[in-house]
Design goal:
By secondary structure, the protein is of the alpha/beta class. It has helices at 11-18, 24-35, 45-52, 56-65, 71-85, 105-125, 128-139, 154-167, 178-186, 204-215, 253-270, 272-289; strands at residues 144-148, 171-173, 192-198, 219-225, 237-241. The protein is globular, with a radius of gyration of 22 Å.
Length: 298
């Protein structure tokens, strides 16, 4: 629920951790699960194996390799994830019998614990190879970067855009409107990196835009929660964060944290050119504060 993570890795997280050590047949099963996650694994083992084009024993080996005693335990974990994806803030809304309950010290302590555990799980579970790929793509000055968020996650996208455009040119924020979706897609090609934010409940328009961007040749970086947006199967890099917080809504605090880590890493990767842009920005900012019209015509 919104107030805490389960403390256990999701099936998708387990697959990501062993992905680079899987045999070719096992990797096919992992891809089949990810392509329709999490419901793709709620079929019989024979059906999953057939979808992946492998034998039933190969599918069972993958299940055991990601830490499940058998196929029933694997499916039970997936069913739990389906229920978590259907999470509603209304279901965990605090009942204070009238709406006048004061904030208690215990509330602050519980929230602090949730946030601390969320930080630990986010940093502990981040995929270093995925993070490196994301930084490499965002720091490539020969590529245009487009940033998109959803109904609530646009605040994360705005933060990334605001900082990245100071450090490097060619960074575009895509407003979450149908007109912006269409006009931005016109400009996407093989030289474009798109960074999308998509947290549960996953937004259809964000997913459709991400799919279309990949179809047009873009490199896709995804930041999502531990249950993973459907876009994860198309992404070149997936950065998953905790959603732990006091509720009733899923917390975006850990998304802000990982976004700031991305910005810091990109600044180091770009190096001198980013420092020069930042210096120029600071000079204009100081001039404006001193009352000099930096934007007026000479």
């Amino acid at each position: 629920m919104a107030n805490a993570d389960s403390g256990e890795d999701t099936v998708a997280q387990r697959i990501r951790k062993v992905r680079h050590s899987l045999a070719p047949g096992e990797l096919k099963v992992a891809v089949a699960i990810s392509s329709g996650y999490p419901t793709a694994g709620l079929v019989s083992v024979a059906q999953l194996a057939a979808k992946a084009g492998v034998s039933t024993p190969t599918a069972l080996r993958l299940v055991q390799k990601i830490g499940y005693a058998g196929y029933p335990a694997f499916q039970e974990a997936l069913r739990d994830e389906v229920q978590s994806r259907l999470f509603s803030p209304v279901a965990v809304y605090p009942n204070d019998d009238g709406g006048h309950a004061a904030v208690a010290g215990s509330d602050i302590a519980v929230a602090a614990n949730d946030y601390i555990e969320g930080v630990r799980s986010t940093i502990g579970d981040v995929s270093v190879p995925d993070l490196e790929r994301a930084v490499e793509a965002l720091a490539d000055l020969d590529r245009t970067v487009m940033v998109l968020g959803g109904r609530f996650t646009s605040v994360l996208a705005i933060q990334l855009h605001q900082y990245l455009r100071i450090l490097r040119p060619g960074v575009i924020f895509v407003n979450p409107t149908s007109a912006e979706y269409m006009t931005s897609l016109v400009d996407i090609d093989q030289t474009t990196t798109v960074m999308t934010y998509d947290y549960r409940r996953y937004q259809h328009t964000t997913i459709e835009w991400g799919d279309a961007a990949v179809d047009r040749g873009a490199q896709l970086i995804l930041m999502t929660d531990t249950y993973l947006s459907p876009l994860s199967s198309k992404a070149d890099a997936v950065l998953a964060t905790s959603h732990a917080g006091p509720g009733p809504f899923d917390s975006l605090a850990h998304g802000f944290m990982l976004t700031e880590l991305l910005v810091s890493a990109v600044a180091k990767k770009v190096g001198g050119p980013a420092r020069d842009r930042l210096a120029a920005f600071e000079a204009m900012h100081l001039a404006e504060e001193d009352g000099f019209p930096v934007l007026s015509n000479p």
